[in-house]
């Protein structure tokens, strides 16, 4: 049994991740303001600090002499710093309140929005620009154009405050949060699909030797460079079967991948493959939404769990999550089958749709704890709709979910909505050639219907012997 060594510089990983997720765009905006300052300084020096008549005398007259410009820039600078600090504090409080209501995953979708990054970079960059202009206002340099730009952009920043406040409030609505996660999940699946298309689903026949490799690191698999691994596997006449998929949390001594070959690999060959995988697999402290569609699924059902449970008792976000999961499963199920590259030496199994179906099951389980009648009806509506529509290869996972959720019905009241969706699910299963499971739903519905008109507590709602 071998060990995969994945040494990572924690500081570099954090820096790269922060640049990619949030800091990168604001830094570019700040750099643009620094370039604008240099250009403006040179232009001011060329136009107003040379012998001869001053151009645009009316502009110099409006802004005043150097001391007046310095006073103006000082006022603008202090005002910008105050507005920026207050605005950012209020926005972060709004985000924190929403995160406490829905889920901490709200932070992820908030920092990934380009408008938020651009706005933060604009305010910080403008503040630095004005401070630099204030410092350049000396007896030997009169920053007329710089003062004019500072004044104009400050007015634009004040207008942007209104836009930013509305945008943040709109982003913090449950519908916006959930829809954004849904869209990120769809995009991540497209990236993930490109990776899966370059792999195979099972090892080739005739490979008599195999070895499981465990990891000595801690983190999450965030990316796999399939092309680099293909070259290394071909050089050593081996195949690499990934046990840990993208999004898998790894701990010390967890199974990571499995090597397959026609004959045992030498120690040097295993070491070379280990080094190649170390370079080709990206392991970071936290999951990302770039290529990890499963992370979006996890975010969605985390929100549903939080809001549908007795901790929040807010059914609407959970219902929205059911809508999103139904849309995601339907899209992925009806998409063209992911092709398999038979010549590939990398084995990677796709379980994205199964993960999304399990998320629906998780929401169904939590409704039995909170007795959210509207959410449980939506869960069964989702199952009925999918069973009626998905391709045959997806039906077993849905049928299994239905059977596992049936015991949770004993905690619910048979509302008209729930009964209607249970009947829909029963009919859909019959139509898809699953009469046994349909009969189980009918039996469970009948037993729960016996409680109608009878005073029962939660624990005795289903009659004895049910």
Low-confidence stretches: none
Q: How does the helix and strand content classify structurally?
A: alpha/beta
Quote the beta fraction. 5-15%
Mean pLDDT: 86
**Biggest sheet: strand arrangement:** 1-2-6-4-8
Structure in words:
- This protein is of the alpha/beta class.
- Helices cover 64% and strands 8% of the residues.
- The protein is built from 16 helices and 8 strands.
- The protein has helices at 10-48, 57-63, 66-101, 106-111, 114-136, 144-171, 174-196, 226-235, 267-280, 293-308, 315-334, 352-370, 373-387, 395-405, 416-431, 435-449, and strands at 2-4, 209-215, 219-224, 238-242, 249-250, 255-261, 281-284, 346-347.
- The strands form 2 sheets. Strands 1-2-6-4-8 form a 5-stranded mixed β-sheet. A 3-stranded antiparallel β-sheet has the order 5-3-7.
- Helix 1 (10-48) crosses helix 5 and helix 13 runs antiparallel to helix 14.
- The longest helix has 39 residues, at 10-48.
- 38% of the residues are buried.
- The mean pLDDT is 86.
